[in-house]
Amino acid sequence: MYGKAFAPEYQGVLSEMSVNTDYRSVLETAKERERDARRTLAQSRLAMAEACRRLGRLDEAESAWRGSYRAARDVPDEAAMAWALWSGGTLARQRGRLNLAVRWLSAARDLADRGGDRVAFGYSLAGVAETLRIRGDHQEARVLHVQLLDEAREQGACRHIVWALEGLAQLDRNAGDLDAAWSGFDEAARIAEDGGDERGLAWALRGQADVLSLRGEHDEALALLARGEQICRRMDLASALAYNRKMRGNVLFRASWYGEAARTYRDAWEKFQAIEEPRGSALARLGLLKSLDRLGRPRRDTERELRELRDRLDGHELRHTKRMVEEALEALASPVS
Question: Does the structure show a pLDDT above 70 at 337?
Fold first, then answer.
């Protein structure tokens, strides 16, 4: 007895080919499967990059997005290359490398445009807008956020709408227009909840809490942050959780609960340090030092550490954050009326 002839060299997804398949067909099929494998590799590494970034495993995220880009380039697939660069640009922003983030996100936008992927185009444009806002380029950021919101509403893209609304609301909050900020964060929260975007909801809740606490409604703000914290912990959103804790510190500070504020800022600072996020680390450290000053710490020690924090920020591109530290130093130096 003997079995039917087969070609053991045709393996995996190619095992369906017969031993009698002509070799031109074998070659074409193998090449197509190779392209498919590279696309799958690019997609898998993109997912790995984003998961690692959000978990705070930044070196792994760096390796994964670069691997995704190389696999996409080998296909070649411009849309997949755009997604990889979007991931790399977002990671660069998280690490405080804002100029590099703008460069990579802009390149991702251009690749997405050429590749015809409107979703990747929107994500990349949103990334540029958010980076400009963090860098302090508020006018440019607003123009891009408005453009994003118009496009997102036209497409009915839930996550894009939420992202754009939150960006505009944050700009309004920074400008002191709390009514407009509340309106933006509130709409973002409702759309995120209706659309099942829990990550977007967590960020919107944080924005709402900020506005409420600025209006003196501290207990209501803490309740919203508690809800957002549950989402962050359930989804392992390391960066979002750290920012949630930092905002809780802000609310406690505004309510004059300085001891609890100091403990919360310290917790946030440790979380930011664990994921190597310099902007969040600086903001949490700033809040901690201001809280300790209110608790009676010697003023000279606080001023010394604030100057050290300011000087460390010179190694990053966080102009807006550095300005906040300088304003804290100026406030300490001003005579109390």
Answer: no
Is the bond preceding 76 in cis, omega lying within 30 degrees of 0? Answer: yes
- Position 162 pLDDT exceeds 90: yes
Q: Is residue 71 helix, strand or coil?
A: helix
- What tokens does 247 get? 């905002």
From the list 265, 269, 279, the residue with the least C-alpha distance to 319 is: 279
Domain ranges of the chain: 9-101, 256-311
Q: What is the pLDDT of residue 68?
A: 97
Among the listed residues 159, 55, 223, the one whose alpha carbon sits nearest the alpha carbon of residue 167: 159
Which pLDDT value is given to residue 1? 62
Residue 119: how many other CB atoms lie within 10 Å? 15
Eight-class DSSP state of 335: P
Dist. CA 111–CA 205, nearest whole Å:
33
**CA separation for the pair 217, 91 (Å, rounded):** 34
Supply 249's token pair: 């510190």
Q: Do residues 91 and 107 lie in contact, with contact meaning Cβ atoms separated by under 8 Å?
A: no
Please report the pLDDT score of residue 335 as a whole number. Answer: 55
Q: How far apart are CA 168 and CA 195, in angstroms?
A: 20
| Cα distance between residue 43 and residue 38, in whole Å | 9
**Burial of 60: CB neighbours in 10 Å, binned 0-12, 13-18, 19+:** middle
Q: How many residues does the chain have?
A: 337
Amino acid (one-letter) located at 81: M
- Per-residue pLDDT of 36-90, as tens digits, reads 899 999 999 999 999 999 888 899 999 999 999 999 999 999 999 999 999 999 9
The backbone torsions φ and ψ at residue 105, rounded to the nearest 5 degrees and listed phi first, read -65, -35
User: pTM of the prediction?
Assistant: 0.86
Q: Which of 236, 204, 206 is nearest to 221 (CA)?
A: 206
Answer whether residue 180 shows pLDDT above 60: yes
Do 81 and 69 form a contact (C-beta atoms < 8 A)? yes
DSSP 13: G
Q: Taking Cα atoms as reference points, which of 82, 126, 78, 75 lies closest to residue 65?
A: 82
Residues 244 and 202: beta-carbon distance below 8 Å: yes
